[in-house]
Please model this.
Amino acid sequence: MTGGKAEALGIDFGTSNSAISYVGPRGLAQLVPLEGGEGTIPSAVFFNAEERTIHFGREAIALYLSGVDGRLMRSLKSLLGSSLLHEQTRVPEGMVNFQDVISRFLKELATRANRHLGHEVRRVVIGRPVHFVDDAPQRDKQAQQALTKAATAAGFDEVSFELEPIAAAFDYERRVTRESLILIVDIGGGTSDFTVVRLGPGRIAKADRSGDILATSGVHIGGTDYDRKLSLERVMPLLGLRHRGPTGREVPSSVFFDLSTWHLINWLYAPKSLRDMQELRTSYSDTRLHDRLMTVLNERLGHRIASEVELAKIRSSQSDAGTAIDLSHIEAGLGAQLDAQGMGEDLRGLLEQVVACGQECAKAASATGAIDALYLTGGSSALKSFQQALAVGFPGVPIVEGDLFGGVASGLAYAGQRRHGTAIPR
Model:
């Protein structure tokens, strides 16, 4: 970086991906290249048992999927506000809790940002969803406190927060040419958040924007929930979900839900869990399905399945053509099909809940029918079936795709500059 020093970093710590931004010398937010020149990094940590090293992001996932022995942790943000956050878990170097793992991840982000900038930045504005936990204010408060503790342990002296959809609004405002009423639609890996905000060239320099924020709402549904649902509908029946055994009863389903949830998969590999799953064999009429389940568990293929489902979701969303979920690592020739129409049907219930949350936000702002545009940010907002559901829920309102992966981080950097008394050039 050349010119003046960044006074604060904006960190978008996401369930699936994270990003960091800072305001450069020309007053424009810039993303820090975090991994191989990319402005985002998967929120993943891999404890390498073979070399006793720790890896992050794409490298972490690639090492795990290549068969290197170790422990992969992903979707860490979803643990904030849960009882699992402080539980001890075994990694090659010993026992750690998930709070410590989040701290290590944030410290790595800060290290990479400081290296890029050429100096140390001790102030940070971190994005947070409207609700870490739905309908549980005390747990929501605990989640923010835990994230503050993690950021402090990562080396930051001053830690503050901004709602993620509001940060996205600050980023989008720099491209608005007239005063507008915008519904910010921020669909991340773990949450879907909405904000009705008044934006415009004449408002951008105001120090206090609280009067421009008319309503916020959020629901704890995001991209990882879509992945879980698609895994349950498309993959898990091939391992025994909804399969009826000799007595006519279905195979117990909890293992399939855990196997479809990133941060729960590793628990299934514990010796007791493996013994319990082996004992399920008598619950199967078709023991070939049980053989597949045990192959997945014994060979620790759960995260690979989750990755294949996520990649198929992205491919299907990018085109109307069908795509295959590759499961040949479980059994030669095994796979599942996914197409845009089928994905829309599988996800209909979740999508309707998310769109309804956005409609409630507009209603709370007394802005129903007055919204000038829907501004999309967050990687999961690119899902075609979601955009189709949104168009039905807000007929005739233009949908604008923003910087899906970097917009929140950029807005957080602007928020940090505003809080530390430096005017933002336009």
